Amino acid sequence: MVVPYISIYNTCYYDRKGGWPMKSYISIKKILERKHFEEAEIVAGEKGLGHQIKWVHVVESIQISNLLKGSELILSTGLGWKEEPEQLFSFVRQLIDCHAAGLCIEMNTYIKDIPQNVIDLANSHQFPIILFHKEVLFVEITHDIHSLIINNQYQLLSDLEQYSQILNKMIIEIDQHKDVLLFLQKYLDVQVFAVFHSGKIESFPNMTEKLKQQVLNRKKAENNERSITKPVQIFGDTYAEITIVSTGRLLNDFDSLILDRTTTVLGQFWLRDLYVSEKRIDSEKNWLTDWIEGELREDVLVEQLSKTERSSPFTGAVVWVCKVKDGTDTAGSGRVPAALNDLVGLKPSLGAWPTKGVVPACASLDCVTVFSHSLEEAYKVDAIARGLDQEDPWSRDLANPQAKLPKKICLPKDDLTFYGPFAKEYKKAWDGAVKQIKQLKIQIEYIDYQFFAEAAAILYDGPFVAERWADLGGFITEHPEVTFPVTEKVLRSGSQPQHDAASVFHSMHKLQEFKLKNSKLLQDAVLVTPTAGGTWTRDQVREDPIKTNSDMGLYTNHCNLLDLCAVAVQAGEAAVNLPFGITFFALSQNEGLIEGAAETFVNKMPAKQETTLVAVCGLHMRGFPLEKQMLEFGATFVREAVTAEKYQFVKLATEPAKPGLIKKPTGGKAIELEIWEMPLSSFGAFAALIPAPLGIGKVELQDGVEVPGFICEGYASEEAENISDAGSWRKILSGI
């Protein structure tokens, strides 16, 4: 795959005369070919003729150490030391210390010769000294060399752009990163090293492992101008470091920019490679996931095992595995956690599963339940666990349910109440679930939900808490402060004098009225409500555990009191990473109705896909030209956000103009951006389209959370406008 690019490289970048790449800078050797230097004499430092010239200065003062930045060619008549020739030694020493490129002196005007100690000093530091034995016009020399330098800069920018275009075309077709590194090596005529985070080292041209390490260690120790190292960043982490080493010329800014472009392209290539590799691994392992989730037939599984490992001990045998967990449910403990964790929670009718061995919470209402990833798994467990236990006084002989559709679905007619910091999100999710329910082609009946709420209140506000104390009060009394504090508080409330025998019978009579009403209402019907009345953070629950748990179980507490069966299923998300669920209820003798209705609902739900958050701060935001690209890749807007105060915001010199986000160790600003959610299946292809110097990395938000998002290579800030104070791309474009 590398041959076509080497061919392009030969055509575009090789000097026709010598066959080697053209110099990427103006050297002293190059300017000696100019007409003004035809009769010039090199008296010292001939080995330094490869020094780069960045500018030309005429200097007649001998104190110049604070005036130079390096790589300047100095022109002088010697006026500054004509009275004290020994000052020339100090002058040359200063030039060497300031990394000047060389010194040109017009002879015979003020000085006649160059002392030997000056020549020796220059030779020892490879510092060129060039003599003009005839009068020359310094203004013409400076104009000529400056024009040469400026024209060379324009050519380098053109070369840099053409190099980038070739690399961008290259990564579309190549299948190994070595092609890029080999191209870099031949383009700059340098030794190239790639040091991966795993410790592996590659070199171009190749050399032994021992020699690779020796060269790298020596160059790092020398810290000179013959080696440059740049990291390759993927999602904010260093995937590899690329080092170029020159054995001849000094490296320069152009080499550094070429290396920058190369590392950016390598990052894109490796990101794409990682994405493709992960997709391949996922594809190869899908059959195993399907097996674990019970979605493979026996013959398909045997075939897959045979393909994967011909000598597999599993060939010819099948083991079916369900990922399930049992729990207990008195007031909703088998359904609310299911909803909060994107699971199915099946609570059969009272007594359908034996409760022998279960630590009682409220023995007459306790159920054993199952958490699972699907209805199919839950009912497989139900078929095994269900049955009459002659030793369990609460056990009942209830037949396995047969799934069928109800004649109607009952929904609360009034707006439901939600609690906690996500109440609005829960309300919106419930409204969305109702829309899905209406599409099931089952009659909808809106009912007065009030009596279900009144029944629920009996569980904790009535004498049923005394049943809890009857079962566990002896233990609590004998072992004070051993039980979790809030649990002990709830249990001790059952010992209060108001929960006397009369209150028990009063509540039982009230429940009997509710059961009669319920049996008429849910004849051949199911009731549907949200599974949870809200959710909170752990810290918020710790602050007020009784209130938060009570509100969470707002729509579950009535279930066992009214002898209902229930199944909680997933119903999408209330917000990002905030699952939302609904529960189907039916009379204990109609368990097949909730199975049939829930299956129909789940099958109509849009398939859930894996997603990732993406932070955007420019043209991909809402209302800007590339918003359509976000939508094409299946992304949806989540919220507006702000970065941590650690970023420089720049306006890149591109067409159209676009911003870049650069993280700084100090002095950064907080920048406004948008958070979008994109399918992982689209993310890799989306990231591969992003042009340098932009890329995808981790963006730190104001709350310290890091999300994938647009970042910019640091080198881009050199030619970009700093717009950090604006804090927003929208403000920049609106002129605020």
Summarize the structure in words:
With 736 residues, this protein is α+β, with helices and mostly antiparallel strands. The protein folds into four domains: 3-147, HprK N-terminal domain-like (Udp-n-acetylmuramoylalanyl-d-glutamate--2,6- Diaminopimelate Ligase, Chain: A, domain 1, 3-Layer(aba) Sandwich); 175-320, 2-Layer Sandwich (Beta-Lactamase); 324-463 and 500-604, Amidase signature (AS) domain (Amidase signature (AS) enzymes); 611-734, Roll (Hypothetical upf0131 protein ytfp). 39% of the residues lie in helices and 20% in strands. The strands form six sheets. An eight-stranded mixed sheet has the order 10-12-11-16-17-15-13-14. It has a five-stranded mixed sheet with strand order 1-5-4-3-2, with helices on both faces. Strands 7-6-9-8 form a four-stranded antiparallel sheet, with helices on both faces. Helix 4 (116-124) links the parallel strand 4 and strand 5 (129-132). The longest helix is centred in the middle third of the chain and has 40 residues, at 253-292. It is elongated.
